[in-house]
Predict the structure.
Amino acid sequence: MQFSGIKSSGKVVYLTATTPFIMLIVLLIRGATLPGAIDGLKLFIYPDFTRLSDFQVWTDSAMQIFYAMAPGWGGLLSFASYNDFHVNVYKYGIAIPVLNFFTSLLGGFAVFAIIGYLAHQSGVPVHQVVAQGPGLTFVAYPEALSQLPGAPVWAVLFFLTLFTIGIDSQFGMFDTFLSALTDEFRVVRKHRSLFCGGACLLLFLLGMGCVTNAGMFWVQIIDYYCAFMTLMIICITECVLVGYIYGAERFRRDIALMIGHPISYFWCISWKYLTLGTISLILFFNFYFQKAIVYEDYVFPSWSIVIGWTLAVSSTLPIPLYACVKLYRSEGSLWHRITSSIRCTADFGPSSIMDRKMYLKDVRLVPPVMGPEYPCDEEEAMTKLDQTADHFLTLNQSVASTAVLVLPYEFP
């Protein structure tokens, strides 16, 4: 059996990505016609600015962004690797957060309209009905749907929405996991279909614990430690790599080479300072104000915190472990091993002939911070770059390229 990979999952996503929007619109229309819906919508629309002084609000906001935008998960990078070199990633990078914003609004309106109806039926203020996290999804909202006429129909629509959202997310996460292993190990690539089936079965069995009587408590631990702490550490690492080791300006020029026009210098500031500083502060204060997880009225025991940190460390441990292995396999002094391990290799860059030629020309103007170890003399360095480009052209002279030459141009 042949495994189609991204070709088959890409077609299925047309269904799984659009279905939730249709379901949410249907639920919103139905919810807006119910008595008390306006009260729920008011609670959703009108902000309580006093809550900005509560650090937990900032933590929850960051967690929402990490869930919705999926930075650090690897899915965006994995799917982007299938794109053509000149796909306008800048346009999609702007469009995805905007679409995510309006999707969150749509979901919020659909949920709080129903919650307002539940509060009206119960005769209590809306803020006493609103739950947080899984409690809202699996307790409060289903309870509200159960009180509607034709409740089974609305329940099926709601959980079908959750299912399609979940399965759609799993396509990205699992493809990232599978691509990483198949790229690293040839034996996995040779038996990709068998490995894919075995991995799905293993992950299914691991997830069974979340549907037991103690499942909600495991979900709380995994949700807080694995899906938040780990992602922030990974994203901080990515910002350091792009902003300071590879070079933010070099990265900005790489994007320009791909899309055909320069982007604002604001993004360099964001990668190096704004994003890195914001995530670091949130992570620091989250450590500083560390407290036990509370679900409803149950305070998690101290041993559960140990389990949570064990899970968090286990998912970030491959980063320093791989670094240690890389240093061990390198030669020279410790400092030379570190610098040589984080440098770009001489063959780094686009794979197509003309794109690579343009990249190597632009590298002369703005080389990576930790670039290849070319000769110190400028003329010798340029000669080395030309030799690298010519060598690459010789190896790939049979490859056709339709690349658009977009350099040189002036950067602000």
